[in-house]
Design goal:
With 211 residues, the chain is α+β, with helices and mostly antiparallel strands. It folds into 2 domains: 124 residues, no CATH class; 54 residues. Helix content is 42%, strand content 11%. The chain has a 4-stranded mixed β-sheet. A hairpin with a 2-residue loop joins strand 3 and strand 4. Helix 3 packs across helix 4.
Length: 211
């Protein structure tokens, strides 16, 4: 499902500064290190009970805030879940236009799409999330892994099986991935602090022009 189909919450589609053939490389993107602070300052104070949680990659900034849990008499689990879902739905509808405006500002600033989600009590819901296609070439042993997952009913297609594998790796290697991300961020910071050497200096000679 495209952003345009998500009830208008993403009003402008791809191709407006968010990509190019081959996809964005990390060096092309502005840093999002201050995104959490920017959103904390930009969002209305009354929206969430605290600062929202942010998850950032090269394509998307996911903003998830927590709403006050509704009070329900009797604490019936079904009633509690219904009240939480209702509160989330009300927040989504009442803040739609303002969230679109904030998302546009953030997308211009960070060159990434913005997705929203909220939690209330034990219920959480993501409103809009980006599904980015990833093109890759796999040799037969790797394709067999995906086909085994499809044949076993774990996934419905090779692409879904590949996503399943990525999630599994992420769950079991998160500490190592976190260290790797921090190391890459440190390299980016050092590169940004380096001297600006500018364009190569001319040696005073002119390059002949073909006639």
């Amino acid at each position: 499902m495209t952003g345009r189909a998500l009830r208008g919450e993403w009003r402008h589609g791809p191709g407006r500064g968010f990509g190019r053939p081959g996809g964005w490389q990390q060096a092309d993107l502005p840093s999002a290190d201050d995104a959490a602070a920017w959103f904390a300052g930009r969002l209305p104070d009354a929206w969430f009970t605290g600062a929202p949680e942010l998850s950032v990659d090269r394509d998307e900034i996911l903003v998830v805030g927590r709403l006050p849990a509704p009070a329900v008499e009797g604490n019936d689990p079904a009633a509690v879940a219904a009240a939480e879902a209702g509160r989330i739905s009300r927040f989504r509808e009442e803040t739609r236009d303002e969230r679109i405006g904030i998302a546009r500002e953030a997308e211009h600033r960070y060159q990434r799409k913005v997705a929203w989600g909220v939690a209330a009590g034990g219920t959480s819901q993501l409103f809009t999330t980006l599904s980015a296609p990833v093109m890759t070439r796999l040799r037969q042993p790797e394709r067999k892994v995906l086909d085994t997952l499809v044949d076993a009913g774990v996934a419905r297609s090779r692409s879904e099986a590949l996503a399943w594998c990525v999630r599994l790796v992420g769950e079991h290697t998160e500490p190592w991935l976190a260290e790797l991300r921090e190391a890459m961020s440190a390299v980016d910071r050092l590169r940004a602090q380096g001297p600006d050497v500018g364009p190569p200096a001319s040696d005073g000679t002119d390059t002949p022009t073909e006639s």
